[in-house]
Each structure stands twice: as C-alpha cells, then as structure tokens.
Design brief:
This protein is α+β, with helices and mostly antiparallel strands. 54% of the residues lie in helices and 16% in strands. The chain contains 13 helices and twelve strands. A five-stranded antiparallel β-sheet has the order 2-1-5-4-3. Strands 7-9-10-12-11 form a five-stranded mixed β-sheet. Strands 6-8 form a two-stranded antiparallel sheet. A hairpin with a 2-residue loop joins strand 9 and strand 10. It is rod-shaped. It starts with a helix and ends with a strand.
C-alpha cells in the first residue's frame, strides 16, 4: 500500500473504517472456516470413493469364486458390467499378460502402472492410486488378482483393474466452493452494514462530546463534557478532558491575573519616571536638582530591572529551561554568610538573626542562596520590628530542611494560603514602603520546584510564621 493510499484510509470516518475492519475480519474467519469444511468434505468424499471402489472389487472377487471357470465370465459379461456405479467408471477383467475379455472404459482412460494385489489379500487404502482426467476430475484406481472357482491352478487367475471416476464428488465440491464464496460475500456485506449501523449508534455519545467541546472558548472555559450516562470508556475520557479543562481554566485565570499584576507593577515606576522627568523639563533646574532627578530615576530603573529579572527567572523555571547542577555544602558556613550579609538590614528594624544550622545540603548553591536570602529578606521586611528571626536546619536520610521563622502579623490562614502566589502582598501599604514587588516567595517556590523539593509555610504558634525549604538528598 502506497503512502497516498494509507493517508486516504486514515482520512475515512472512524465508523466506516471500523465497519470495514469488521468486514475484513469476518471475511477471513468465514473463508478460513469454509476452507476447513471444504477440506473435511473432500476427505470424506474421497474416503467414500475409496470404500466404494475397494468394496466393488472385493465383491467381484467373491462372485468369481462362485464360478467354475473363466469361460463362464466371458459368457456372462453383463453381470459384471452392471456392477460399477457411474457410467464413467472403468472395469477391466483380463488374464495376466493377455488382452481384456471384459472391458468398460467410456473415456478411454489409461490406468497408471500398478502392482496387482495378490489373491487372498484384502484391499486397503494403500493399494489405491490417483490420476487426473483432462477436465481436472480425479480418478481412483486399483488392481487385484482374483481366482475363478476354488482351484488355484493359475489358469483361472484373473486380474481386475477398476477405476472410480469422481464426477459426482467433483460436482459437489464445485458447488460447495461457490457456496463458500457466496457465504463469505454475504457475511462481509452483512457485517459491514450491521457494524456501521451499530457503530453509528454507539458513537452518538462521542458526537455529543464533540459538540460540547466545540462550544469551549477562552470566554467559556467553564463548559464541561457530560459524564453521566456515558459508556465507561468515554466517561474516563470525559473525566480526563474535564480535569484538563480545570487546569486550563486555572492557568488562564492565573495568566490573566499575572498579566494584570505585571502591568500594574511596571506602570508604577514608569509613571514615576515620566512624572519626574516632565516636572523637571517644565522649567530650568539647577545642577543639584538634575542630579537628584537622575538618582531618583536610577532607583526606579533598578526597580524595573529587578522586576524584569525576576519575571524572566520565573518564566524560565516554568518551562524547565534552567539546568540545575547540584553539589554538597555545609549549611552552617553558607547560612552564616547570609546572616552577615543581611545583618545591617535587620539592625535598621531592631531585629536579631539567630542561627542554628548543623548538617549539609545537596543543591545548586546559587539558587539555594537566592531562595534562603529571599526568605530572610521577607522576614526582615514583614516581621515584627524589634523581634528575632530564627534560622535553623534539620538533616536526615531523606534530605535537608531550612526553617526561617519570626513573629508576624501575616500569620493568618488566608494570607499564608497565597504567600507563594506571584505579586501577592498581604499588606500593600507596608509592601510599598519596603519596595516589595510580590515576586520573592514565588521565586522561592520556583527554585524548590527545580530541585524537586518543597516550600511550605505554617504557623507553629500564635503570632509566629515559619517558612520551610525541603531539599531532597543526593541520588
């Protein structure tokens, strides 16, 4: 089958394709069964022909024992000529080495070379031979010696050559072949028709699913496929498809929210830059005023740069384009570096960093530093002023955990449920003062996803909030 033919078959409707397959299978089964029955019938007819031939020859031998001599056979040939079934059958009686004295051979068939069965030896199927006429009809042959009378002097020994022309059997088998062909053709047509009707009726739920799926658009993502009353196979498909639609709807809503939040975050620094620049250009300013304007613009541009960098990192993490090369390192050493780095920022709010960090961790060091640093910055910005920030670790056979906890007014169930969402800020007024853009914890979650780890938040006791980063052990 060529490529174009295969493509044309694939483009056929499913109902028609399955109906044709059913028809082909039926044709193969019916043909195989018919061929088997044909072979069985042919063997049965051949067995019957063999029995008829050997039975007649044995009957001739019995009759000849009741005669006195061969001359009696020559005088009464009609007695033996009337005892062979079909008119085309061959019967030859002759003394060995002499011409036949009784012969019936309408089609002038030539007997094959055969060795006559001796006197007193019963005939069997092994003593039969086969030839084929010009029209394809098979002929069964046998030869046997018979003794005329009871005296075995050799002079009364007659050779019987008999041939059974299987004309009726050939006619029956020819008719049987055509019946097999007709039955196969009828079975193919009937199966194809019934298969198409049954499939057309059985696939109606699938057509209904197709119509409902066609109504699903970005503006109607809430539409779901019907599950009740569906066959079990289609019900599983509907369940999977509806679950996919749930994920798509959630992702689409998240994307819409993300786009809105992103536009809002970028609009603020852009508006500040434009407003300050327009005010400065309204009239001539002193050198000091221009320097102050440039410093303010640089701060806003740095804020924009951080937002863009964070968004780019999250986009790469979502598409798994970042390669994570992990290594082992001591937690105490790295956490002390982070504490030293943020100690000045904590002092500004009167906060103290408390460290308890034994053990080692297996992770990408740069990403690990960024994730833990974001947690520490988050604790300093949103924690209770004058309090302590506890940084501790726990290491076991399954991996390592880093906990950052502090007192915070954000230790509320509805706030903690959304803390890892992008652009989420529990207290927007306080977030504006701390220059938060709501992406720090989202980056933490993305980093943990790249490590096949987990980031969680909980309230260990009233008024306290704890963030935990769980890194798996090296494999």
């Amino acid at each position: 089958m060529s490529t174009s033919e295969r493509l044309s078959v694939r483009h056929l409707p499913l109902t028609l394709r399955v109906a044709l397959l059913f028809a082909l299978i039926t044709a193969a089964v019916v043909t195989a069964l018919g061929w088997y029955l044909y072979g069985t019938a042919r063997e049965s007819l051949e067995l019957r022909a063999n029995q008829a031939l050997t039975g007649r020859v044995e009957h001739f031998r019995t009759l000849m024992r009741d005669l006195v001599n061969v001359e009696q056979m020559e005088q009464r040939p009609a007695l033996f000529e009337s005892m062979m079934g079909n008119e085309q059958d061959v019967r030859i009686f002759r003394r060995q080495g002499e011409a036949p004295f009784i012969q019936s051979n309408p089609d002038r068939l030539v007997p094959p070379e055969m060795e006559a069965v001796p006197v007193g030896t019963p005939l069997s199927a092994d003593d039969l031979f086969t030839s084929v006429r010009a029209d394809g009809v098979r002929v069964r042959w046998t030869a046997a010696l018979a003794e005329v009378g009871n005296e075995r002097d050799g002079h009364n020994t007659v050779e019987i050559v008999a041939g059974y022309v299987m004309v009726e059997e050939a006619r029956m088998m020819r008719s049987y072949r055509w019946r097999i062909v007709g039955a196969a053709a009828a079975a193919v047509l009937l199966t194809a028709l019934l298969g198409w009707l049954l499939l057309h009726h059985g696939l109606r739920p699938l057509q209904e699913m197709s119509r409902r799926a066609a109504r699903i658009t970005p503006d109607h993502l809430s539409t779901r496929l019907e599950q009740d009353g569906m066959p079990e196979e289609l019900r599983r498909v509907a369940l999977s498809f509806n679950a996919m639609l749930d994920r798509l709807e959630a992702g689409y809503a998240h994307l819409s929210q993300f786009s809105g939040d992103l536009a809002h975050e970028i609009r603020t620094p852009v508006n500040v830059l434009m407003g300050q620049s327009q005010v400065a250009l309204g009239q001539r300013r002193s050198t000091e005023e221009y320097e102050q304007l440039l410093e303010s613009n640089v701060e806003e541009l740095q804020r924009l740069s951080r937002i863009i960098e964070n968004i780019l990192f999250l986009a790469q993490a979502d598409h798994a384009t970042l390669a994570v090369d992990c290594s082992d390192f001591e937690l105490d050493t790295e956490l002390r570096r982070i504490v030293d780095y943020f100690e000045g920022l904590a002092d500004e709010r009167g906060m103290q960093l408390v460290l308890d960090a034994p053990g080692a961790c297996h992770a990408n060091l740069d990403m690990w530093r960024r994730a833990v640093g974001n947690l520490v910055v988050n604790a300093i910005r949103h924690g209770e002023a004058g309090g302590a920030i506890r940084i501790s670790t726990h290491v076991d056979a399954e991996g390592s955990s880093i906990m950052v906890e502090n007192r915070s007014a954000d230790a509320l169930p509805h706030s903690m449920a959304r803390m890892f969402d992008r652009f989420y800020r529990g207290d927007r007024s306080r977030s504006a003062l701390t220059e938060s853009n709501g992406l720090g914890l989202a980056i933490v979650k993305a980093i943990m996803g790249l490590h096949r780890g987990a980031a969680t938040v909980e309230c260990p006791q009233p008024g306290w909030i704890r963030f935990t980063l769980r890194f798996p052990a090296s494999r």
